[in-house]
Design goal:
about 375 residues; mainly alpha; D-Maltodextrin-Binding Protein, domain 2; 15 helices; ABC2_TM; transmembrane
């Protein structure tokens, strides 16, 4: 009986174009829009070696030595090009350098736009000017102190990585999207419960009259739905990784495990709503979409800062929102070197899954019909 029901449901569900669209095509289309909208954001805020044009109008050996030190090594800060004033203006207007530095009695910086590179150039020149003025004053007052002077910058902090992954905050949108796609699997759960209720479908009426255990038939059909949902999620993950080039880090095995758990949570959530809420299929579908989209919004899918706003202002919402628990589990895998936060999220998600499943079972087994 299991094989017959399982294969039958697979065939029926694969022919349901509306279901396939909302549970697979729609998340893929949304991921494509996200990639188009946020594709260049991950590179913003980063910089490499800054090209700069230098015009020497005086023989400033000290500045030349300082600039040389800042332009050597494995990751040099500057790439200087010593040119004439006219050449410097041409390079700046063509956008080939971030700015031009004119070395005379005083340093002069010229830029044609604002940005991180230009700000770094200004900070560098301001610090150099401040240091040279300080040394000049000390030399004038206490020249004997120059021989013992150490101008090496003192570092009071220590670099320590806060995460094992790159700080690409656009990943939050994709994590919330995957969580939403998993919980769109609730449509499958809604379908399965509706098909075993005699007052909602003819199939449900026949099933309640047939000598077949209703709960067994429901479990077998749900396994078929879960199989299709997992297949759709694997297609979505493959599209994100291999087509859009989204980098989810090195924890791909645990990410897939999390997708399996999230899909099961989504499926049981749909069956829970279908069993608990009285009304027709349209009302239940609208309720599922509304709850899923609100949960996705609070987890940062539409507005990334909303995730942190909820965590700081309404922390309880992060716990009772299963979509956020799933999205945050992906986040924890990528950004943290320990599994404490990940396991906390997965534990909460599993608790929700058990509650959804047991509640569905309790409602279905107690439902009776006066006539069919």
């Amino acid at each position: 009986m299991f094989g017959h029901i399982f294969v039958y449901r697979l065939k029926v569900l694969l022919r349901d174009k509306s279901m396939i669209f909302w549970t697979m095509i729609f998340p893929i289309a949304l991921a494509t829009f996200f990639n188009l909208a946020f594709g260049g954001f991950s590179s913003q805020g980063t910089f490499g070696t800054i090209p700069v044009a230098v015009v020497l109008e005086s023989d400033n050996i000290a500045f030349a030595d300082t600039l040389e030190k800042m332009s050597t090594g494995e990751s040099p800060m500057f790439k200087p090009d010593f040119v004439t004033p006219s050449q410097a203006d041409a390079l700046l207007s063509d956008g080939k350098v971030a700015g031009t530095i004119t070395v005379a009695d005083t340093m002069a910086l010229k830029v044609n736009q604002s940005g991180i590179s230009q700000s770094i150039l200004k900070i560098f020149l301001d610090r150099y000017a401040h240091t040279t003025r300080t040394v000049s004053r000390i030399a004038a007052i206490h020249p004997e102190s120059l021989q013992n002077m150490d101008l090496t910058p003192v570092t009071f902090t220590k670099d320590a990585p806060i995460t094992t992954g790159n700080l690409d905050m656009t990943l939050n949108y994709f994590y919330a999207l995957i969580a939403m796609a998993c919980f769109y699997g609730s449509f499958f759960g809604l379908e399965e419960v509706s098909l075993i209720q005699a007052n909602l479908s003819r199939r449900g009426a026949r099933l309640n009259m047939a000598p077949v255990h209703k709960l067994k038939a429901f479990i077998y059909s749900s396994l078929a739905s879960y199989t299709i949902l997992i297949g759709e999620m694997m297609v979505l993950m493959a599209y994100l990784i291999f087509v859009l080039g989204v980098n989810f880090g090195s924890q791909i095995g645990l990410i897939l495990v999390t997708v399996f758990i999230g899909s099961l949570a989504g499926l049981t959530f749909g069956s829970f709503i279908a069993a608990l809420v009285k009304g027709d299929a349209n009302m239940k579908t609208g309720l599922l979409i509304g709850i899923t989209m609100i949960g996705s919004f609070l987890s940062g899918m539409m507005f990334a800062e909303m995730k942190y706003l909820v965590q700081t202002k309404f922390p309880l919402l992060t716990i009772i929102n299963p979509v956020n628990l799933l999205a945050d589990a992906f986040y924890a895998l990528y950004f943290f070197s320990t599994y404490n936060r990940y396991l906390l999220n997965i534990s909460g998600l599993l608790i929700f899954t058990v509650i959804f499943a047991l509640s569905t079972y309790w409602v279905i087994r107690r439902r009776k019909y006066a006539s069919l």
